[in-house]
Structures are given as C-alpha cells and as structure tokens.
Design goal:
The structure holds two protein chains of two kinds. By secondary structure, chain A is an all-alpha fold. Chain A has helices at about 5-20, 30-40, 50-65, 65-70, 85-90, 95-115, 120-130, 135-150, 160-190, 205-225, 240-260, 265-280, 310-330, 345-350, 360-390, 395-415, 420-440, 445-455, 460-465, and strands at about 285, 305. Chain A is globular and about 70 Å long. Chain B is of the alpha+beta class. Chain B is built from six helices and 23 strands. Classes of the chains: A mainly alpha, B alpha+beta.
Chain lengths: ~475, ~475
C-alpha cells in the first residue's frame, strides 16, 4: 500500500465515519454496508489499497463519535450496554460532557491497548483460537446459559401472597426468556431459509438488527419524553484518575476480546461477563472540588459526588467497545501459519469478505491507521461534543427521531430488502420492544445469531431445519 | 427501608425511606391502610397501624379520589400540581417515570400521550404473530434460480437455486465430506457438504450425481475475494439429480478433436507406464492406453497419484492391465488425452490382453455421448439459464476494468515464474502487455502441462479477468480449458 493512499483514506474514513455516526440509531455496520455498495460502483476509480484503511478508520471513528448520540440522544447500540446507565445518569445531572469524554478516553486507551497487544495476538491468541475452534459451539452454549441465568431471580420476590412473590420474582426474567426464544426462532428461520431477495442478500441482517435495536430505541425515546437538562457543564479537565484507567483496563480488555473473538457475542454481552469476572464493587465515593468557570454558554452546576464505579464503567465500556469493533476487524490481519486466513469476526468482515482479502504486511499499516484515526477521532469527539452542547437547546428531539426513522426505513427498503426487509424489521421491532418495555436485557435479542450459529457449529442446523419444515 | 404492596396492580414497590413513605401518605399517593414491610417484620402490616405512619392526616376517600383522578384523566385534568404538566414525571412525587405506566417510586399512575400498555400489547402480540408469519413465509418461499455468471458481491449470502452439470466430484470418506464443482455454462461453482457425505449417499442412492450429470443445488452463496464463489450444502435434500449423463462406449480409433470435452467410456489396456521426475523434483506418471484401434495418453501428477488407492496405482502402473473407465477427451501438445474423471469408478478387468474394442462400424447404434459441462448443449430451456456466450479472444492491451468478471480467451507466453510458497505466480506476456495469474497449489495438478512450466512456456485457454490490489490480473476458473506448452 502506498503511504499517501493510507493516510488520505484514513482521514476520509474518519471524517465520514464521524459524520454518519452522529445520526442517532444508525449503526456503523449499516454505514459500512452502504459504503461497500458505493465502492462496488466506483471501484475502478478507487485504489484497492484504500479499502482496509478506509473501513478501519470508520470503525475507529464510530467507536469514538457514537458516544455522543449514545449519551445525549439515548441512542445506545448494544455495545454500550455497560456504560449507558452511568452516561444517562450523568447527563441528567448536567455532566453529559464528562460522560462522553470519559468514554472517549476509554476508547483511546483501548486503541493503545490494541496496539500493545500485538505480540499477544500473534504468539498467544492464535493458539487459543486454534484450540477453541472445534469447541466454539460449547463456548457459545455456555455464553447463552450464563447470560440467561445471570438474569435469574436473585432471592425471593416480595409480596404478601405467594402469587405476588412469584410474579415479582419472575416478571423480568420471563420477559427476557420470551425475547430470547422469539429472537432465536427468527434467527433459525431466516438463516435456514433467508427471505431477502438475492440482490439484497449481503445486507440481509440489517433489517433484523435495526428492528431489534434501532427502532425500539426510537419508540422508547419518543414515548418516555426524556428531557435532556439544558444546563450542561463543560469541564476543562477530565474527572477521572489514572487508577480508574487501570481498574477499567482489565474488564474492558476481557470483555472486548471475548466480543472480538466469539461469533455473535457483542460488547454488551461480553461486558456483563467481564464485570462478573472482575467483580467491581461500589468503591469509595470521591467528591470533587468546584471546578473552574467554564467558557461555554452553559451554566456551572453544583459539584457532584462521583462513584469510582461509574467512571470505571464508562472507561471500561469505551475499551470494550473499541476492542470489539476495531479488534474484530484487526484480527483479520493476524496471518500466521496457524491462522492463514486471519481470525476476523464481526459484521464488517462479513461485508468485506467478497471484496477484500488481507495480505502479509497489512497488519502494521492497520496499526498505523488505528493510531492516526484514533487521535483524530478523539479531537473530533471533543469538538463535536462542544457543538452538541451548544445546539442541544435548539434540537427538537421529536423531529430528530422522526427524521431518523424515515432515514432508517429508507435504508431498509432500498438496501435491506425492499418490502420483505420492512416486514422483517416490523417483526423484529415488536420483539425488540419487549425488553425495552418489560425491563429486561436487550442483549437477549442477540439470540438471533447466537442460537443458529451455535447449533450449526454443533451440527444440528439440519435437524432444526427439518423440525421447522424448512427443508 | 420500607416496601409496600400495591394491590391495584399486584406489585411490590420499594425500598423507600421513612420520610419518602410519609410523603406518599401525606400527598395521598398511597392509602393509609396499604400493607407495608421492612426488615425485621414478621409479616406485612397495614401502614396506619404503625407509629411512623399513623399520624399522617388524610382520609381514604381523599386518597381514592386522587387516585381516580390520576388514573383516568389526561394530564390537564389532574389536580393542580406543578409536576403534573411535565410528561414522563410522576404527578405525585415528581420522579422521572419515563415510559412506565406507574411511577416506580410511589406507584402512582403516570400520564403518557401514547399508551405504553398498548405498545406492550402490540409488541407481544406482534412478535408472536410476526414470527409465525415469517415461519409460514419461509416454508412457502421458493429460492430464486440464478446463473453462476450473474453472481456478484451483493449476492453474498443469497439463498438461491443453481442448475448445472457436475464437472468434478471429490469425496472424503474419512471426513464424511463432499465437494462438487458445477458448471451451468456461465461459470463454475464449488459446492461443499461437510459431514454430510454418508447422508447424501443414503438419500440419493443410485441418484448420486457423477461427473457430467445435471444437478440442481439449493443453498447459500458464500463469496470471498480470494476463493471466489462457493456454496455450502447444509441439507442433503437440497442436492438433486436432474439428468444423468449418458456415456457411450467409444473406441480410441473413433476419437477425434471434435470430441474435445466429451466424456466417454473407454475399455483399454495399459500399453506403457513411465514415472518421470520433473524439474521441480516431484514425479509425473505418464500412461499410454491402447485398445487395438489406437492409443491415447494421460499424465497424472504425483499429488493426484498419491491419493489413489493402491490397487488402482498398481493396475495403472502394470503394463498389460485391462481397465474400463470414464474419461474426458482433452488435448496436450496437439495430441488427444484421456482425462479420467473419477478414479473411484475405474474397473480393473484383468491382467493381460483385452477383448479388442470394435470401431463404430461394428457396433450397434452408438448412443450420443453428451458433452462435458463446458459445452453449449448442456444449457437447456425451462430453467432460467442464460444462453451461452462466445468467449472472446482478447489481447491484454484490450482489457480494462470493465472486463472484470468476464471470461476471455488468451494466448500468451510465460515471462516470469515466481514461487509464493506452494503457489506459483506467473507473469504472462502476449506481445501487447503483461498480466499476472496466480496458480494456487490445489489447481496445479489439474493444469495440463503445468509441471514443466518455465519462462517461454506458451499458455492458452480461458481465464477470468479479475483485479488484485488495483491491477488487472487473470484468474483460473476452469483448469481443464487451459494448456501449457513448454517448447
């Protein structure tokens, strides 16, 4: 690859990724899918060497800039499962900028950790991957069991009658099980016999995920009428300590690696694992002194008392997110004798598979891209967050959600399969609304991929196809 | 900390502090006789029997009227309350209840413009009905029939039906896997079935396809930049034999260049066997077969030879052994070759001479031997096949990026031979320009004349124009139609 092409398309990918990621509920895989379609039309004019740095830069930019709609417009994607609650909590207390910056710094720390983990990927992780490969269906089964069981009623329910206690205990868990089961059924049906027309097939998963996550988010945001406090504080320093980064690194790396390597396991699910494994508790509250006067239009708020756990969740969530999105793509470039085709996972690898294959020598270029794009994205994050704070008071959220809905419906129709895609999105939206309105984990919707992949790996895909009479 | 039981919806709420509970009672959000509980209590106790709450002065009647007001009226009709006008906020305690129907703190009914209860019902009913609808739609769906040549990158993951003729079958009984290559006249598709060979053999029985048979396969397209288009066969029933290839018995003397690509049955004896070492250090096994009307040759690379069963290699390497096999008629250096299509189907008739095969004048009606899959006659109407197109002969200078994905016929000379591990990168020059072609290791044994390739080797055949790192290059789609001739 020529250096100029790498630098130019890294910049381009970062800028375009950042701009598109500001749109609430628009996932980077949707943007990447549109970019692949466009690239196929103009590929005679665009150098082949541009693909990898462009898409890598987009993923990096998304990991950073997505924090803004996630925090300010309640448009969190599944990967933000660990950090969305502290973000919203801080936003309501006028600390949206802090939440964004801490997550962003976590993402940057994750970028640096990715680079430092290069020897680990080449000399340890390849062996782990090869050893685990024949047994992945067991691992995924374990993931599913743990995920469902970890939402199990903890202790007895409360109520004066046995029925009241039973109901109290099982309400949320039952909703989670229903979501899991329905999502799994959708996944089994659509992987055995896809309904999408052939010409839309490479984005056949898009209507499913938009239905599970994007549209219910919009419905929830519209129904809940959450008011973003207009008084937002913009600090000149980071309300975090170096020890927070150290404490967040372990759960962040564990969660990110699990999500990057295991198929169909997203950062949200992996973050639950990681937090259980590292067992963070509510640590000692720390109060901050009154900060200096800000130089923005917002008024100063009273000092808040931060719990270290919130900061760890935010920073760790950022690390997990970047290791998941960027790490999953980066692993594609780890070409060794044991992994001659790399270890890439994730939606971007599936999208790029028909048009791109990594070569030896691409890995260092990807490291450079991550570093360059990460640095640029962090600066963009700060600037765009400032801009968001300024325009927050003028944004009509109802109008914004309406526009986003129309954009997403258009994407589903024109790229995701036409009317069939809209039908699939409608069904998955109904399923995706169950966890939102019945207060269980939205990650249960990932059963749409987890269950079919695990069953196929275990060799039961055909049996399921026969059982469902889809042969 | 306190808990209370809300009998209106059968839910337990809490924990709350004593002060919060007192506020609920004083504001009328909770009736005073509501059951409450805290740690240390043996059972639920009416609040107004406890000293903490017994002094709260509000009557049940007032509470009921307030509850009815919050339950049934739109926000503008609730009792005057500064909090009641703010959507999402509890009209009693001011807590942000968001999309919830009742306040999670005090249990008062919240007001929303859109009925959340309705959304919840729609989501559950819609989910169940929607999944059923998807299931019925999937059952009823017939996959679209596409031509291999029409498959492009956006169709990755498409669930389609392909009809074509089998050009190659590889069975691996140890791994219980099967691989087919299917040619529908517009391109070649590799179909793999992992851990399914025994099932397929059991289900298809005598209808198990052989080389040259017309088959239908339904599955999901998997396209990668490096390996092209392939399909995974996950359900054995999705492979169907449509038409068996009729193979005729032909004498060697009746073979001609017009029969190039045809599959015929030969009954021959091994006239000559030579094991020769190539310049690369591997071996090549050169066989000459005869049947009394003529002789025909065949070279088998060491990689293929080493995978043959010992009884087959013994038979082939023993001069005088009589054999019967199906072979595709090919050409090498202007001479006809018999390319054995399925070594597993070789019949060893015996050692020594053979009953001499008669020429066509002495036989009965000679059944028409169908041509191999690359012939235009295999493209039948009735399915959505494209009419075969002439593969144009092109010079390298005439190729540009618009030709990417198209088959072209070329004649060129090898300029450079670069070994990339076990693969070989050839640079070809046709006098008007240069293009490269990567010969992957698994293709090498199937390329006629490749074992002796060197600078100056003439190359002719049909290649696929593709692109690699921004530059045009050639790709081998069908090794059988490519020839290397070393002077």
């Amino acid at each position: 690859m020529t250096g100029l092409i790498v630098i130019l398309y890294t910049f381009l990918g970062t800028i375009l990724g950042a701009l598109f990621c500001l749109i609430p509920s628009l996932h980077i895989y949707n943007v990447a899918g549109i970019a692949v379609v466009l690239w196929l039309q103009i590929r005679s004019s665009v150098p082949y060497d541009a693909i990898a740095p462009f898409f890598m830069a987009m993923m990096v930019a998304y990991s950073f800039i997505n924090t803004i709609p996630m925090t300010f417009f309640a448009a969190a994607d599944e990967s933000a499962g660990a950090s969305v609650l502290p973000s919203i909590d801080l936003l309501k207390n006028g600390r949206g900028f802090d939440a964004t910056l801490q997550t962003g710094l976590g993402v940057y720390a994750g970028c640096l950790l990715l680079i430092l983990m290069t020897p680990f990927f080449y000399f340890i992780w390849t062996y782990v991957a090869v050893i685990l490969a024949p047994h992945l269906h067991w691992v995924l089964g374990l993931v599913m069991v743990f995920y469902v069981m970890s939402e199990w009623p903890k202790g007895a329910g409360r109520g004066p009658t046995p029925w009241a206690k039973f109901k109290d205990s099982w309400r949320n868990v039952f909703a989670g099980l229903v979501t899991f089961t329905l999502s799994a059924l959708v996944g089994l049906i659509l992987t055995t016999k896809p309904l999408t027309p052939p010409e839309f097939s490479f984005q056949n998963i898009m209507p499913i995920f938009l239905g599970f996550f994007a549209f219910p988010s919009i419905v929830q945001a519209y129904v809940s009428k959450m008011k973003i406090p207009l008084t937002q504080y913009r600090s000149d320093y980071v309300n975090a300590r170096w020890s927070d980064f150290g404490a967040a690194a372990l759960p962040g790396v564990i969660g990110g690696l699990l999500a990057a390597y295991l198929p169909a396991v997203t950062a949200g699910i992996a973050a639950v694992f990681a937090s259980h494994m590292t067992n963070h508790r509510n640590l000692q509250p720390v109060s901050f002194e009154k900060p200096r006067e800000p130089d923005t239009v917002v008024r100063l708020v009273t000092p808040e008392i931060y719990y270290q756990q919130e900061r760890i969740f935010l920073i760790g969530g950022g690390i997990t997110k970047v290791l998941y999105y960027v790490g999953a793509f980066l692993l594609l470039f780890v070409l060794t004798d044991l992994t001659p085709r790399g270890m890439g996972r994730g939606g971007l690898n599936v999208l790029l598979k028909p048009v791109f294959s990594p070569e030896h020598g691409d890995y260092p270029i990807m490291i450079f891209t991550i570093l360059l794009s990460g640095s640029l994205s962090l600066l963009l994050l700060i600037s765009l967050t400032d801009l968001t704070l300024k325009i927050l008071r003028f944004v009509n959220l109802n109008l914004l959600y309406g526009v986003v809905t129309i954009v997403l419906l258009g994407i589903v129709y024109f790229i995701g399969g036409g009317l069939v895609g809209l039908g699939i999105a409608a069904v998955t939206t109904c399923i995706g609304c169950i966890p939102v309105f019945y207060n269980c984990r939205r990650s249960h919707c990932m059963a749409v991929l987890l269950v079919p992949i695990a069953l196929n790996m275990a060799g039961y895909g055909e049996a399921i196809a026969r059982f469902l009479r889809l042969v | 900390m306190w808990y209370y039981f809300d009998s209106r919806n059968g839910e337990t709420r809490g924990p709350f502090t004593t002060e919060e509970m007192q506020r609920f009672f004083s504001s009328g959000a909770l009736p005073p006789e509501i059951p409450v509980f805290r740690e240390g209590f043996a059972d639920w106790t009416p609040a107004n029997t406890l000293s903490e709450f017994s002094s709260v002065p509000i009557s049940t009647a007032e509470v009921k009227s307030l509850q009815q007001a919050t339950a049934s009226s739109p926000p503008s009709d609730t009792p005057s309350d500064p909090l009641a006008d703010q959507e999402g906020l509890c009209p009693i305690c001011g807590y942000f209840a968001g999309a919830l129907l009742t306040c999670p703190r005090c249990g008062a009914r919240t007001q929303n413009r859109i009925s959340v209860r309705l959304i919840k019902k729609i989501s559950v009913i819609g989910s169940i009905l929607g999944v059923l609808a998807l299931w019925f739609a999937a059952q009823a769906k017939s996959p679209a029939t596409v031509s291999i040549g029409d498959i492009d990158e956006p169709m990755n993951g498409a669930f389609v039906r392909i009809v074509g003729r089998v050009t190659e079958i590889k069975k691996n009984p140890d791994k219980n896997s099967l691989r087919l290559r299917i040619d529908d006249g517009t391109g070649i598709l590799s179909v793999s079935a992992f851990n399914k060979l025994k099932q397929i053999e059991k289900i298809l029985g005598d209808d198990f396809p052989g080389v040259g048979d017309k088959v239908e396969v339904i599955g999901t397209i998997n396209e990668t930049q490096r390996f092209g288009v392939s399909m995974f066969l996950s359900v054995p029933e999705r492979l169907k034999l449509l038409e068996k290839l009729k193979i005729s018995d032909v004498a060697i003397g009746d073979l001609s260049k017009e029969m190039l690509g045809e599959i015929v049955r030969l009954r021959v004896s091994v006239a000559k066997y030579i094991k020769k070492k190539t310049r690369r250090g591997s071996y090549i096994h050169i066989l000459t077969f005869e049947d009394g009307t003529g002789s025909i040759g065949r070279a088998i690379g060491e990689r293929t030879w080493s995978k043959l069963p010992p009884k087959i290699t013994d038979a082939l390497s023993t001069e005088g052994t009589s054999l019967e096999f199906e072979a595709r008629i090919g050409e090498y250096r202007g001479r006809l070759q018999a390319e054995i299509v399925d070594f597993d189907k070789i019949k060893i008739l015996g050692a020594g001479g053979i009953p001499h095969a008669s020429s066509s004048e002495n036989r009965g009606t000679k059944s028409v031997s169908r041509k191999s899959p690359s012939d235009q006659e295999t493209r039948q109407a009735g399915e959505q096949h494209k009419e075969p197109v002439e593969i144009p002969r092109k010079k390298f200078s005439e190729l540009d990026k618009k030709d990417i994905g198209k088959l072209v016929s070329i004649e060129a000379e090898v300029r450079f031979v670069d070994e990339k591990g076990e693969n070989v990168l050839l640079t070809l020059d046709d006098g008007t320009g240069r293009l490269r072609v990567m010969v992957w290791k698994d293709l090498q044994p199937r390329l006629v004349g490749f074992e002796n390739v060197e600078k100056g080797t003439k190359v002719s055949g049909t290649f696929l124009v593709s692109e690699y790192r921004g530059r045009l290059q050639l790709k081998i789609r069908d090794p059988e139609v490519i020839r290397f001739q070393t002077p």
